[in-house]
Write a structure and sequence with these properties.
By secondary structure, this protein is mainly β. The chain contains two helices and six strands. The chain has a six-stranded antiparallel β-barrel.
């Protein structure tokens, strides 16, 4: 079966971020209350859309893994809390970095409340 290219599957435009924005997150263990199964993820957001983001990280991620964290903005103390799910990941050919596609979880309630002028 032929799979559509990533550009054909995209439903929203991607926006590159300059300077790089950081994502600080922790993986959520499968069983509530466990902290030993949790890992810290620290990476830079390569691009972002209304449905998710592309993350560059040193840590290997697992598909379907949930991450809870904050998107931090350089030069400020502002951050946006977020819950994300890993949709895909690739090992980059340079260094020990990984590139991962993360999708926002629990986003549906936000879209209905936003209006454009």
């Amino acid at each position: 079966m032929n799979r559509p290219s990533s550009k054909q599957r995209r439903t929203a435009p991607r926006f590159r971020l300059q300077p790089p924005i950081r994502l600080y997150a922790r993986t959520l263990p499968l069983v509530a209350g466990l902290t030993s199964g949790s890992r810290v993820i620290d990476g830079h957001i390569q691009n972002i859309s209304r449905y998710g983001l592309c993350l560059l990280a040193r840590q290997r991620l697992k598909i379907s893994e949930l991450l809870v964290g904050e998107i931090g903005f350089p030069g400020t103390r502002a951050s946006v809390p977020t819950l994300l799910q890993v949709r895909w990941f690739h090992k980059n050919s340079f260094g020990a970095r990984y590139r991962a596609g993360l999708r926002y979880v629990l986003q549906a309630g936000i879209e209905g409340s936003l209006t454009r002028p």
